[in-house]
Design goal:
The structure holds 2 protein chains of 2 kinds. Chain A is mainly α. Chain A is 70% helix and 0% strand. Chain A has 2 domains: 77 residues, Orthogonal Bundle (Rna Polymerase Sigma Factor, Chain: A); 105 residues, Arc Repressor Mutant, subunit A, CATH 1.10.10.10. The termini of chain A are far apart. Chain B is an alpha+beta fold. Chain B has one domain. In chain B, the strands form 2 sheets. A 7-stranded antiparallel sheet of chain B has the order 2-3-4-5-9-8-7, with helices on both faces. The longest helix of chain B has 20 residues. Classes of the chains: A mainly alpha, B alpha+beta. Chains A and B meet through α1, α2, α3, α4 and α6 of A and α1, α2, α3 and α10 of B.
Chain lengths: 200, 251
């Protein structure tokens, strides 16, 4: 069998199954179906062209994600229509504002999270700033390792862990808000008014 | 900050860790429902594009004739005098700066590669040290940041050509018996029409795509853009082998 045909078959076996994962991530990052489709197509074309350089035995999915990231950066650097860059300091400030004060008073996180609607979770993820959304998606949805995520975001593993922790916490705050709006739990201000502690 | 914590609840880091774990568990349990599958039409489009063969430019009558001439030149009896003549010509072409004709990057890349292979176009700076090469290029008037792609090939060195007052950087890499020649031009020189690029390639680059073409008997051309630098790499390797040299993440 010709070498190129073997490569094509291997690509079909190793890379193509990750198409949905890439599309899902691309959609979350671009927030546009056409842009996501273009980005994934570009990623696969590049990956196919360079499949010979893929190091066998390593994680093909992580490799594809790195290609997608570069394509994403190049595309938005060119078109300047990417999501607004959010200042990390502003995110830190936001994080400190919500830190512990709201969700530490609740005893029902598990129930809140279990009862959250998929749409609410999706929206909450979408509302996260880029840096935080990226690590949540790569870790909790796409199951990449910390090392692979660190390589993807070009940060030390410690930063990935910290960012992931903060992202989950922001998500928890948002889901608690949704739950409160649906009447699942009382808003935080009611807890604060209780002298003896929180009661539902 | 409100610190009312109900009885029986852990405090501080332990509590935060519990929230962290709860969110992680919730997301992991919902992986399938949170994922959006790639639409069928998009998947079909991608699969079709993967099945497209590499662009192979067929030889035109002119190119056939050119190949025949090249074959004749390869005969030992004419090789040495021809090389000397080409050397003189290329030296003139590379160093001349009074021309007002735009540099056709596409054609020049192929021609220079042929000259490099034949030894008629030689390196002005023999080093794999990118810092030294950067300094060399800057000193020679290259006013854009030269891009050194990460390649599984040895950087041999570089040279500079000057056309219409613009200095361009050229790099040569080696792998085994093969050479990869790289011609870099800044986007500004293309925008100002000091240098020109084939429309198909220009359109590909404008939409973030790469351009590959194979010319049987001449070489494989790979064109991509890194920031504002247009890079044209030519080699006698086939597309698949040439693409395997590049580290994709670095392009």
């Amino acid at each position: 069998m010709p070498h190129e045909e073997l490569l094509r078959q291997e690509f079909e076996r190793e890379a193509v199954p990750h198409m949905s994962a890439l599309y899902n991530f691309a959609l979350r990052m671009t927030r546009d179906q056409d842009d996501a489709a273009d980005l994934v197509q570009e990623t696969f074309l590049k990956a196919y062209r360079f499949f010979s350089s893929f190091e066998r035995g390593t994680n093909c999915k992580a490799w594809l994600f790195r290609i997608l990231k570069n394509s994403y950066i190049n595309r938005y650097r060119k078109t300047s229509k990417g999501p607004d860059v959010i200042e990390y300091d502003a995110v830190e400030e936001f994080f400190e504002t919500v830190r512990s004060s709201e969700i530490e008073t609740s005893v029902l996180e598990e129930q809140i999270f279990d009862n959250a609607l998929d749409d609410e979770v999706t929206t909450a993820i979408q509302d996260l700033p880029d840096e935080f959304r990226t690590v949540i998606l790569l870790c909790d949805i796409e199951e990449l390792t910390y090392e692979e995520i660190a390589e993807f975001v070009d940060c030390p593993i410690g930063t990935v862990r910290s960012r992931l922790h903060r992202a989950r916490k922001m998500l928890a705050v948002r889901l608690a808000d949704y739950a409160a709006k649906r009447g699942f739990i009382l808003p935080k201000r009611n807890f604060e008014s209780t002298e003896e502690g929180a009661e539902l | 900050m409100n610190m009312n914590i109900p009885d029986g609840q852990p405090m501080g880091n332990e509590r935060e860790q519990q929230i962290d774990d709860a969110v992680a568990r919730m997301l992991q349990a919902r992986r399938a429902s949170l994922r959006v599958s790639v639409p069928i039409d998009v998947e079909r489009r991608i699969r079709l594009s993967l099945a497209e063969p590499t662009v192979t430019t067929p030889l035109t009558a002119t190119e056939n004739m050119f190949s025949s001439i090249i074959a004749w030149f390869k005969r030992p009896i004419v090789l040495i005098p021809a090389s000397l003549a080409i050397l003189a010509f290329v030296t003139f072409a590379v160093s001349q700066n009074s021309s007002t004709t735009p540099v056709d990057l596409h054609s020049v890349a192929y021609a220079n590669f042929t000259s490099v292979v034949k030894g008629s176009l030689t390196l002005a700076k023999n080093t794999s040290d990118t810092t030294a090469l950067r300094a060399f290029f800057a000193k020679a008037g290259v006013d854009y940041p030269v891009f050194f792609p990460s390649m599984k090939a040895e950087l041999k060195g570089g040279m500079v050509s000057t056309d219409n007052g613009h200095a361009y950087a050229h790099l040569v890499y080696g792998i085994g018996d093969h050479l990869v020649y790289l011609f870099e031009a800044d986007q500004a020189s293309i925008d100002s029409r000091v240098a020109i690029l084939d429309t198909v390639i220009t359109n590909n680059l404008a939409t973030g795509k790469w351009h590959w073409e194979e010319r049987p008997g001449t070489g494989t051309l790979f064109v991509w853009k890194s920031n504002n630098i247009v890079c044209l790499a030519v080699s006698d390797l086939r597309t698949q082998d040439m693409s395997a040299l590049f580290t994709l993440e670095a392009l």
